[in-house]
Amino acid sequence: MGTKDKIIKKLITNYNPVGKVCMDLGPGSGRWLSFLKSIGPKKILSADFDKDVMRKCSKITDEFFLINFEKNKFKIKNDSIDLILITEVFEHIRNYLFFLQEIIRISKNGSLVIFTMPNICSLISRIRLLFGLLPVAIASDDTHVNFFRKKDLTRIFTKMNQTLKFYNSSFSLNPRNPKSKLRIKSNNFLSTLDDSLIFTLIVKK
After folding, report:
1. CA-CA distance, 62 to 59, in Å (whole number)?
2. 112, 167 in Cβ contact below 8 A?
3. pLDDT truncated to tens, each residue of the chain (205 aa)?
4. Structural contact between residues 81 and 107, judged by C-beta atoms closer than 8 angstroms
5. pTM of the entire structure?
């Protein structure tokens, strides 16, 4: 388990989802749904636009929503969710303000929202630029449409009267491989070089 996954696992565990309503947006293989289910939440929800993801995850979630995050509202009542996971999803969404408004709408006051996304300013991305190569966040996936720095994210959420907390992780030393085992664990000084941005939101209403 890598540094990022360890941080996510710790954030979930410390929040203690037992008896709470949890949701994973863009659950992929469903691994975080399985982890949540092992803890014993009251209910697990998930959503994605991909029917293949729906087929994979429907068996391990209480309810799956097939939805376009950029256009459609969740068929969920206001103030319903205690914990939301949004891992490696935010960078795929063009109309992110609508998406965030929906996240806040369905979240309870005090809900925890966990985000991860590629860091456009990672160390290896900076090195790649020196050699005329695109940053990893752009080159690795042509469905990535939005790229943010920490200060960009802080500004966006501040305008929504919300406050973010960022977490230090680690960064690769191999410009050809962001998942290389040759990596350095970061700290407050080095965190702008991390391969991923990991941040949380405690929803305030």
Report:
1. 8
2. no
3. 788 999 999 999 999 999 999 999 999 999 999 999 999 999 999 999 999 999 999 999 999 999 999 999 999 999 999 999 999 999 999 999 999 999 999 999 999 999 999 999 999 999 999 999 999 999 989 899 999 999 999 999 999 999 999 999 999 999 888 888 899 999 999 999 999 999 999 999 9
4. yes
5. 0.95
